[in-house]
């Protein structure tokens, strides 16, 4: 290519000199030769620079001041690289498709850079995710193998004992019926101490995910007889959910992770396309958890515990469809409730705490309360 261009140039150069028939030894002859070379160079370089400028102008939504004439197509482009950390693969594809109207060379350069960048970004992201999953897995393996939460009956903690879960099971049986649940995903499922006691459980397909490998192996063995049950190792923060359950149970789980991982996990659950989510919230009365009353949603390291209130930032859940108070006879010291939400729920609320009138709080100790009843009570109170 370069060879051809240079022979073309020397051909033009010689032709021009022949046409004017100059003597090469004179001073003006030398000046003329120099001028011809200069003109040739300028005509060669200018279109490239102009094309680059136009390309830069239209290839990014950022300021054209980022234009860098010293960087040629095909070579690493410093300005674009510096911004690459904020250019997502999606934005990249978008700008590449905008360029369809631009030059073919520009299209190719951007397409190549885009795909290189997203492949590389994905690779790095995968490495980070694997490390995170390992870290989380080790924390929960330790909790499981040492019975750290002291459940006694259940390694998943006292909140998973049969007596404690009576109301949770009552609510789930009602939700299974009301919402026609055929496939339920329980993530993380723990040692599944109480779930098979839900009324109607055997006629519902149950998938249990947990990050602790020993727990998954144990569950597969332990529930061999149950034809409706299936288990897999899974990290709800980082691994996509490749089934579409009617309802997801995510109970007593989010509050043992960092807030950031909790948000990521909930976003992941929503992405599965499930219609309903069952989870819990703690109004935190200050009695149960040895944490000052009303303090909630604060940072803990993985495996720690904070009182979670999904109504508040960063979760900002919408109102639940229905709920019940947890604990034996609905009594607990944490102000703990379990509810069913229609998905998506996160960021659908206004960030204010759920207000439940006292009489409905009392009712919720025995029976499922529908949010419509809360609304009705609020309407009456406002008259
Ligand atoms: C559900 O199935 C299991 C295993 O087959 C059985 O042990 C259990 O009694 C069944 N439960 C109900 C309520 O039928
Ligand atoms: C969540 O609620 C808080 C408090 O009302 C509000 O400041 C914040 O903007 C909300 N966040 C989102 C993402 O909706």
UniProtKB/TrEMBL annotation:
InterPro entries xrefs: SAM-dependent_MTases_sf
TM region positions: 30-55
Keywords: Membrane, Transmembrane, Transmembrane helix
Source superkingdom: Eukaryota
Protein name as annotated: Methyltransferase type 11 domain-containing protein
Organism this protein belongs to: Sphagnum troendelagicum
